[in-house]
Amino acid sequence: MSAQTPRLQALFENTRTVCFGRFLMQVPAAATVVYGPAEADTPIRRLPGEGARVTDHLARRLADIENERDFLLKDDIPKLPLFGKVLDGAVPGQKIVFGSKNQVGYTIDSYVPVGDDLFVQHLNSVLPQHDRIATINRIASHLRLRAGDEVPAEPGSCIDGGFIPLDQKFERVTVGIRLKEFPDVHFSVEVHKNQERLAESGSLELLREQAKNDAAQRGLGALYARIQILRRQTRQLGAWSGPDIASRTPAHGNETEAHEFRFQSLGAVNDPLQPLLDVRLDSGVKDDRKASVKPSITDEEAIALWDGLIGSIRIRPGGVAKPATAAARARVPLASLAATGNPCPETGWWQCSESGRVDGGTRRHFIAGEPLPPAVFLGEPRLWHKLGASLPTHTAATIWQLVAYGAPDNTTAHQAIRGSDEGEPHA
């Protein structure tokens, strides 16, 4: 770590621990922590103090959806049977609403009240045959509030004001550090879990080479050549390894000189403890615009601050659970939802969201993996139906909700669970 100036020594005299994703970092005690975009299988954001205003947010979204209806053709509506519908989620007070902006798939917004806060999950371009409701409910049913200074001991991921004690396919967390001693300095960290391959095309060295070529093509090659490299090294940070470049860009036009530091490691494939890591420091920032004011920090202080912050990034103890055996697989939570055409995620009793005369009853038993059927509605019986004619029927896509586990081991159990469908015809 670089030698600290008196200003930096005073800054790091007292520190506190910040949790982001499955990782920790030490920051000056008086620093402001700003969480940015996050993803927990779906993009998710927190609205502090809005937990009691689900109805207001839902009403605004429904108004927007009605405007989206103007962009749908007459033939689009049957392809999107959930358009404009609101479903209850797995959490008390949770509402899931469906819109569409592209005539092809749904936009899904899930409003999850947790204590005084409201968390909003959002998905775009979800094809009707793809079930994402179970994913939304899985996260919502495990999400809990987390105090700003809380460092959870159990496996899971820290997001803004929340904690999700689950393994997730998609994980992304961004966090920024702001310092009143250096108000123009922005320090940020992004961790993004890789999937089946690494983002080689976004490597730092490749991006720098592209920037150099772009500058030359725009006649700014001389300006690019004036960028001063303060330090260039390969940094080993735990399991991460990658280029660490500290530079100062020259003033140009309306832009002031400014520091640009960056470390990037592509991480490993499908490893929540070695995601893509992107760390940045910029000086001269005002109103989120770089190179807008003269930097308040010297080169030596910038390097010392960078080393002090980035060097403290580490895995949170207990960040990931030990692999579970197949026998210990967690059940899909009761009240989980799944749409017609998708594989049944859990063996048990499922109730459709439609009311009326449903063939076979509104509650049905399905085996995990079998396709969930549409609801088949029976018409009102007439005299000729009593004389043997078949009832008219029509089918409609529906949402099935898990209401009980288990198999239909005997007729009594079958009747007991379907008993609430009084007056409905049975197959």
Automatic annotation (TrEMBL):
The lineage of its organism: Bacteria, Pseudomonadati, Pseudomonadota, Betaproteobacteria, Burkholderiales. Residues 150-318 form the Tle cognate immunity protein 4 C-terminal domain. It comes from Massilia atriviolacea. Pfam families: Tli4_C (PF18426). This is Tle cognate immunity protein 4 C-terminal domain-containing protein.
